[in-house]
Design brief:
Blueprint lengths: L19 H4 L15 H12 L10 E7 L3 H9 L2 H7 L4 E8 L11 H18 L3 E5 L4 H7 L6 E10 L9 H8 L7 H4 L5
Antiparallel strand pairs: 1-2, 2-4, 3-4
């Protein structure tokens, strides 16, 4: 296995041409602990999420945005699994991704998680376009986050997105450093696409 030494460019080796924010996107764990995401840039990233498609234009996504150094950030840190605590604190921003699974009339929104995923994907691509990186996390105590922020029962904490600038990979614990520099791999299109006749 050939390890990657230049992490500033990890462009995907795609089977078809992609726009740069998609080809360049990857999920680092080494974030710059001093970098700050400017308010306007963060607003632009969230605006991209706002314009994602959703079933019946229901827009069933909600976000908690926590900047490094704030009480909200510290609260999220305490609710993360230990392996995520090791690296996520260096990110400039943590975004809790929430699906509103029930509407105001009490009806289920069966596509809420899917729609949230689209909004987070839009957010991720826009962040990449802005010269930042993101990493999605699932290792956290969702119920504890739900309670800590007083969310209604209709809202489900689904994931957390870290946002920030690339940092020094050598600051990561060895096991994470190895994963950080390993070659990028994906299944081929033929492994997951079925073409109907």
């Amino acid at each position: 296995m050939t390890l990657v030494t230049d992490l500033t460019s990890r462009k995907a080796d795609t089977a078809a041409p992609l726009i740069d924010p998609l080809a360049d996107r990857w999920s680092p764990r080494a974030f710059d602990p001093d970098a700050v995401v400017e308010t306007e840039t963060l607003r632009t990233i969230l605006e991209a999420a706002r314009w994602a498609p959703s079933a019946n234009n229901s827009q069933p996504w909600r976000f908690i945005v926590a900047r490094r150094g704030t009480e909200a950030f510290a609260t999220l840190h305490d609710k993360m699994a230990g392996f995520n605590q090791e690296w996520a604190d260096s990110a400039a921003v943590l975004v809790v991704n929430i699906a509103e699974t029930v509407d105001a009339e009490g009806r289920d929104r069966p596509w809420a998680r899917y729609d949230l995923g689209q909004a987070v994907a839009h957010l991720t691509v826009q962040a990449q376009h802005e010269g930042l990186h993101t990493h999605q996390m699932g290792g956290f105590d969702a119920a504890a986050i739900h309670d800590a922020f007083g969310l209604p029962e209709s809202q489900e904490v689904v994931s957390i997105t870290t946002i920030g600038a690339l940092g020094d990979v050598d600051r990561l614990p060895e096991v994470l450093r190895e994963r950080e520099v390993a070659p990028r791999q994906r299944k081929t299109l033929g492994e997951f696409v079925t073409v109907g006749e």
